[in-house]
Amino acid sequence: xxxxxxxxxxxxxxxxxxxxxxxxxxxxxxxxxxxxxxxxxxxx
Length: 44
Known about the structure:
Mean pLDDT: 89
Oligomer: single chain
Number of helices: 2
Shape: globular
Low-confidence stretches: none
Strand order of the largest sheet: 1-2
């Protein structure tokens, strides 16, 4: 699900868990980075 945010926030969540947060890292993810994180959480 994509939820439009404000203030340049970019977060990827799986259920209630934040998988990636630009606010924490200070940067946008590298290509494939979010996919790898999600695969790790899903055991794919």
